[in-house]
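Reply to dn_fold:

You asked what the input looked like. This is it:
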Amino acid sequence: MTEVHSERRRTLLQWLAGSAVASGMGAGAGVAMAAPQGKEAGKNVARIGDAALGLEFDGQMRSRLLARKGGATVAVTGFHASERLRVTGGRWIDSFALGAQAVDRVDGPHGAGVRHRLTGASKDGVEKTVMVTFYERHPGLALLRVSYRNNGQTALPVEAWSNSGYTLLPAKRAPGRGFWTFSGSSHADRRDWVQPLKDGFEQRNFMGMNSSDYGGGTPVADVWQPEHGIAVGHLDTVPRLVALPVQQVKAGAALAIEFDQAVVLQPGQELTTLDTFVTVHTGDYFAALDRYRLVMAERGLAAPQAGDESYEPIWCAWGYERDFTIPLMTGTLAKAKELGLEWAVLDDGWQTNEGDWKIDRKKFARGEEDMKKLVDDIHGAGLKARLWLAPLAADPGTDLLHQHTDQLLLDANGAPQFVTWWNALTLCPAYEPVIEQTRALVRKIIGEWGYEGLKLDGQHLNGVAPCYNPAHNHARPEESFEKLQDYWKMVYDTAREINPKAVVEFCPCGTSYAFHTLPYTNQAPSSDPLSSWQVRHKGKTLKALMGPTAAYAGDHVELSDGGDDFASSVGIGAVVSTKFTWPEDPKPKDSYLLTAVKEAKWRKWIGIYKDKMLPKGQYRGELYDIGFDKPETHAVEKDGRLYFAFYAKEWSGQVELRGLKEGRYRVRDYVEDRDLGEVSASSNKLKIGFEQALLLEAIPV
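and this is what came back:
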């Protein structure tokens, strides 16, 4: 990032004397408050920050975070060795006598700001420089870059570095209510992305592979309690193999950014960390992820604005699973259209195998001719056609692997990487023949067969292991992981070049989405949710990471609690999707048959979805804390109205309708079509009772 620095730099004492500079900074700028003296932690600190966040450093460059609001300042952590260096043997160098401080004006992609430079030295002869930048348009967020210079006489073997290591203290007014966390890592057990912290909780949140085919993610971790929260992460535009450990400790909730970087620093050499950030917030993790999204957009990474096609409701043939036949699928199309659905998705099973991607002649006797005929039939029924694909997977025994073993991603021992679900092997996304092969396949599907969309599926799509295949001539093994985003950009761009309205759905099977991939998808489903809770908190997460009007889909409603929880998708502003079978099901044991009772419910909810179209509204994730507010509440603002969705096993009592503007609102249960009274911003409490869910509409009177 190129920034314009002021020509004049002032030391801390010059800064304190230079009132002309200080007076021009305004409330949002960083301010140094006192010169460091002595070595005792927490005494004689250097204080910097903006109107929302303060950082205090003691004489050994340990720091703590301060939350600022309305003139009040609250310490939310104690003093910690927040930035430190690990050397051979696992020893951390974490004490640096603070010797100098300077400050500069900066301007760049994030706008105007103030950069502080603090320098200190360890007994080992290591000089540490911490650069902390506060930007006026991003109050409450500090961007850090730290460097370590070996000023000793001998080489210094380094293993790792750590930034922004803090422990969030318990809430002062509610010390017993505990903590929650958002963690952006991927795991084979497909655990919740948002969890309460319990005794013994510890999660490393490594952004690389946490099993053979589960890895990648969003490089942000957040912990919060009822009063304050802290989030940390890295801001590189390329995915990096960082870890963001979160742990429940005696003092509170601990988190940090850690990066293994084995290097030997010769005398005079320097190591510089990635750009990282720390931010404080109130409420849950939504505000921090939303701020992260805005900062990354300024660096060139932003999810695309979805078109109308991305919001249209979906029917998927996966209810028939791999046993589908063309008559079964085409026999369901008219019913899907009658219910108001707009997409028909041909899922896994059309191909002979993953890798060759040849059409299965048992289902499509005339090959491509029958495939095109199916697309014509879908269009004839008034629906759009989407095709399932699992790129980067290749089955053993395929012609591809027989003829092109050079395409495999290999580990340091020369072994392939397994994709467990399909018993397949992983291809390297940074190898040009793999890229060109996928490009040709996308061109065939969209350009020749006539599909308007792709369903890209598989947990292995989110991240891949470092590649050591000598045939690929990688500059570094990590290129496979770092260039995965370029591979998905190619897929997205290829589809959209052929059909500018193509929908490219990215479904990484329960993993926490790789943020660096989100610019190359215009529909993100909850991706095989294990519960309705996952449908809802994944929705809140992706609305933060992709924007408040993101085309997030709740995935097949049959996967939610009870197999019919439309309320969880509709209420939070998610696209509805279903995989029912009709008029019969060849699998009576695990049937998704649309019975008459189900049909009435499906028809009602799909109608409500299309009438309200809440995904096109502004998801107001900042209004409610998903961890501590009870009942769980979500809000969407659309066309001057506010929509509230409440969820609980059972609830009877008052709720607060937040976000109302001036004037009165009539409150209506839009599912059961009943009025519940009037409210206003100054009188926004409402007594309600419900089981499972209640969806309300606040209409300006």
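The CA atoms of residues 175 and 247 lie 17 Å apart.
Hope that clears it up.
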